[in-house]
Design brief:
- The complex is a heterodimer of chains A (about 270) and B (about 550).
- Chain A is built from eleven helices and eight strands.
- Chain A is of the alpha/beta class.
- An eight-stranded mixed sheet of chain A has the order 2-1-3-4-6-5-8-7, sandwiched between helices.
- Chain B is an alpha/beta fold and about 550 residues long.
- In chain B, the strands form three sheets. Chain B has an eight-stranded mixed sheet. Chain B has a seven-stranded mixed sheet with strand order 9-8-10-11-13-12-19, sandwiched between helices. Chain B has a five-stranded mixed sheet with strand order 16-18-17-20-21, with helices on both faces.
- Chain B is globular and about 85 Å long.
- The chains are: A alpha/beta (about 270), B alpha/beta (about 550).
- Strand 2 of chain A pairs parallel with strand 15 (about 400) of chain B, so a sheet runs across the interface.
């Protein structure tokens, strides 16, 4: 892999993270014909997924738990010429940092966020997250998870994300295509990636049976929300995409127009 | 000449605005002005006051006693009556046994202006009482509100003519110099940071830091600062870290509660060596405390903020000018040493409006240590003697940054030797910062005398005035981390006191810890700032 670093990969053999790493690096390599690699900045959170920053030879910031979206925002506002891509886990994004995710979607910063959603805290050895099914037996819920799981797709659609997709880490060809679309999309692109955790929540078999592509892409946000809420099997693909003004286009101030001295004169 | 007057009414009466407009009348005439505002955490009703002090001398605080109260509500009169000689009141709303009766509300009704405009009539009358041409006030209104100032000006003229016929003048105030700039501590800090290259400001509203958010938002295009109000303080701090990572100078502003939420980000900035300036405007805690009042309770909190050990630079300004200089200095130092810095403000400084002679050229953007080598050889966390590694940003280099312990390239490590070496590199910067602070004004001394009064932040203003009266020396501790022990440990003095707005004596304990100085604590912890009138007897007690 051209984008490999010297770092030794320490994910469990069979981890869904490998599929995400492969699909992402392939997507970047394919995009490198039109985009200089130096312009990429990756941000990762805390959890097994967070190590991805060490495995890709692109600029990166491995930040703290739950805070990927505001970091992406601060970077993009400082330098809109950079292409910022965030990686987060389900515990990272749907538990610890959920508030940031909702507001990043509303704000429509031009960034891509890939959530490694394995429905379990892996690095802390197997507790229930916001997307663990009700009844999930983790080490902190020995009698089963009493909480209903969150629906990230419906939440992002309701929050105003301008690109919402779901992929499966087992289908890297599809994931690569969606990642490319997400990076090229102008605005906040959200991809929830279903990712088995072979050690604490092995969903390979389940997802291989249940995952199927969206047949007819929804034509409106309302239709997309309906689809995200109704399906009993797990749909993958782009639920919704729209172009609208980005955060940085609206709030970023390029240049200074007056001096501090001029302003102090005005305060007299 | 040194006199004080007050404006008081309920929230919604435009008390603060009236105080600042009145202050501007005097600053235009060349006087030094200090406007202290008191208000409650509510939007309508309650009790608000603006205390305006005017002097031919530099001002850093207000005085309690004065000439006049402008009363917009009857119930504020008993609160202020004992501090003033006379009361100018809205006689169309209530009556007083004695006082200067001005039918402000009637005037407002006659001009078909909303009731809040009545204070323009009061300020017109004020111009007469101080022998000032009402045109000075009219011009202040024109400059502040443009075409919308029309009714204010009509009311000011009405108040002026009414007063001229009926009231005796209190003083004759003449033009003594050129207009002076009038701004609050937060605004001044913001301008200092802009001079030092600030390009991004992130803040969630919290009293008493909010005036900076408003100020920078309204002047963002002139000043070239991107201003964002994110979902919470955590986001604000992380956005600032993101911008600084990408090579842009960023700052956040908050109060103690918001800074508490930023702890994890503060620690990240320490580990990842990201320069961010945090403005912490203190108010009384714990918890929500007294949200609109004054305190200096967060010194120890800021000195120990964030989990883990890492260098931080903390300084606390004493007045509006000092806020400008220290904000600029701290932003530059944060970038030079690649570590977080805190400008520790307090409510009295943040929200008091005062005239200031700002030497703008004294602050400029100082370039950090930049990497000049080949992109492929770049090591973000290169181990150096000073602990400072040269900076470079994408897209020029591939930049690897992390909140985990890391090697020189920025890859995660838990190797014992590498971890220790990187920890030591970060901590070495503390020594380098200290060397730098030895060349700066880490403490400031005012006056002379065998006995010394230590203080910090905005308390310095009242202490200087009280100490002048008693012949005491004042030492303002400006830099608080690294603590300037080199300045205090060799100080010679007979007796020492320490004045600060908290219960436990946080500076006093630092003086003991770093300089073996036993200073008698003069605390205040009722949410109010010290004034010289109240401080003189307390200092006299200590040094008698």
């Amino acid at each position: 892999m051209r984008l490999a670093t010297g770092a030794r990969i320490v994910w469990c053999p069979g981890c869904g993270n490998f599929g995400i790493l492969k699909a992402f690096t392939q997507a970047v390599e394919e995009l490198s014909a039109e985009v200089e690699l130096e312009r990429f900045v990756l941000v990762s959170g805390v959890g097994c997924h967070g190590k991805i920053a060490d495995y890709i030879a692109l600029s990166s910031f491995h930040t703290i738990h739950g805070r990927v979206p505001p970091l992406l925002t601060g970077i993009k506002l400082a330098n809109p010429g950079l292409i910022v891509v965030g990686f987060a886990g389900d515990g990272d994004m749907y538990n610890e940092g959920l508030v940031h995710l909702i507001h990043a979607a509303r704000r429509n910063i031009d960034a891509t966020l890939i959530v490694h959603n394995n429905s379990v805290y892996g690095l802390t050895t197997g507790q229930a997250t916001a997307t663990s099914p009700r009844g999930f037996r983790g080490r902190s819920t020995p009698e089963g998870n009493p909480e209903e799981p969150l629906n990230p797709i419906a939440l992002m659609l309701a929050s105003g994300a301008s690109f919402v997709a779901r992929c499966f880490a087992g289908d890297t060809a599809h994931l690569k295509q969606i990642v490319k679309r997400a990076i090229l999309h102008r605005g906040f692109s959200f991809i929830d990636v279903l990712q088995p955790c072979v050690t604490f929540n092995n969903t390979w078999k389940l997802y291989k049976e249940k995952v199927r592509p969206i047949e007819r892409p929804p034509e409106s946000r309302e239709e997309a929300i309906k689809l995200a809420c109704s399906a009993d099997s797990v749909l993958t693909g782009i639920f919704y995409s729209e172009e609208r003004e980005t955060c940085e286009e609206q709030v970023r101030i390029e240049a200074r127009h007056a001096s501090v001295k001029t302003l102090i004169e005005k305060l007299k | 000449m040194d006199f004080t007057f007050r404006v008081s009414g309920m929230a919604g009466d435009g008390v603060k605005g009236a105080g600042i407009i009145a202050g501007k009348v005097f600053s235009r005439l060349g006087y030094h002005v200090f406007v202290h505002v008191e208000y409650q955490s509510l939007i309508r009703g309650g009790h608000n006051a603006a205390v305006v002090r005017v002097s031919t001398q530099k001002l850093r605080c207000h005085r309690k006693y004065g000439d006049l109260l402008i009363a917009l509500q009857d119930y504020v009169v008993p609160v202020h009556r004992r501090y003033v000689e006379q009361v100018l009141f809205d006689s169309s709303k209530f009556t007083l046994k004695e006082g200067l009766a001005l039918p402000m509300s009637e005037f407002a009704a006659q001009t078909e202006a909303p009731p809040v405009f009545r204070n323009a009539a009061a300020l017109g009358a004020l111009c007469h009482l101080y022998g000032i041409d009402v045109e000075v006030l009219n011009q202040v209104y024109r400059d502040a509100y443009g075409e919308k100032a029309e009714k204010d000006i009509v009311l000011a003229e009405m108040g002026y003519s009414y007063a001229k016929k009926r009231f005796e003048r209190i003083r004759e105030v003449e033009q003594i110099g050129r207009p002076r700039a009038l701004l609050d501590g937060n605004q001044s800090a913001g301008l200092g940071a802009v001079r030092a290259g600030l390009r991004c400001y992130y803040a969630y509203p919290m009293t008493p830091s909010t005036s900076l958010l408003h100020f920078l938002a309204s002047h963002r295009r002139e000043l070239g600062v991107t201003v964002v109000q994110p979902e919470n303080e955590i986001s604000a701090a992380i956005m600032a870290i993101g911008s600084a990572f990408a090579g842009t100078r960023a700052m956040v502003g908050t109060s103690g509660g918001g800074f508490a939420l930023m702890q994890e980000a503060f620690s990240l900035a320490g580990m990842a060596e990201i320069p961010v300036l945090f403005l912490e405007a203190q108010r009384p805690g714990p918890s929500t405390g007294l949200p609109t009042w004054h305190a200096q309770q967060d010194l120890r909190f800021v000195l120990h903020a964030g989990h883990g050990e890492f260098p931080r630079i903390v300084a606390s300004p004493c007045d509006v000018e000092d806020a400008f200089h220290l904000a600029g200095e701290l932003l530059n130092l944060a970038w030079r040493f690649q570590t977080p810095a805190v400008l520790l403000m307090d409510r009295y400084l943040s929200e008091s409006t005062a005239t200031a002679e700002i030497d703008v050229d004294a602050v400029k953007e100082e370039p950090p240590l930049l990497y000049e080598g080949e992109p492929e050889d770049y090591r973000r966390y290169l181990i150096t003697d000073s602990g400072i590694s040269p900076l470079a940003f994408p897209p020029r280099v591939m930049l690897k940054v992390t909140g985990n312990e890391h090697d020189e390239l920025g890859y995660t490590t838990d190797d014992a030797a590498q971890s220790a070496a990187m920890y030591e590199k970060r901590m070495r910067k503390e020594k380098a910062i200290e060397e730098e602070l030895r060349r700066r004004q880490a403490v400031r001394t005012f006056g002379s005398g065998r006995d010394v009064v230590f203080t910090w932040g905005s308390s310095t203003g009242a202490v200087i005035e009280a100490a002048e009266e008693l012949g005491l020396r004042v030492v303002q501790v400006r830099y608080l981390s690294p603590f300037p022990k080199w300045e205090v440990e060799h100080l010679e003095f007979e007796r020492a006191a320490c004045v600060e707005c908290n219960y436990t004596g946080q500076l006093a304990s630092l003086l003991k810890e770093h300089g073996c100085i036993e200073a008698e604590l003069i605390p205040r912890h009722d949410g109010r700032p010290f004034t010289p009138d109240e401080l003189v007897p307390r200092l006299r007690e200590v040094f008698s």
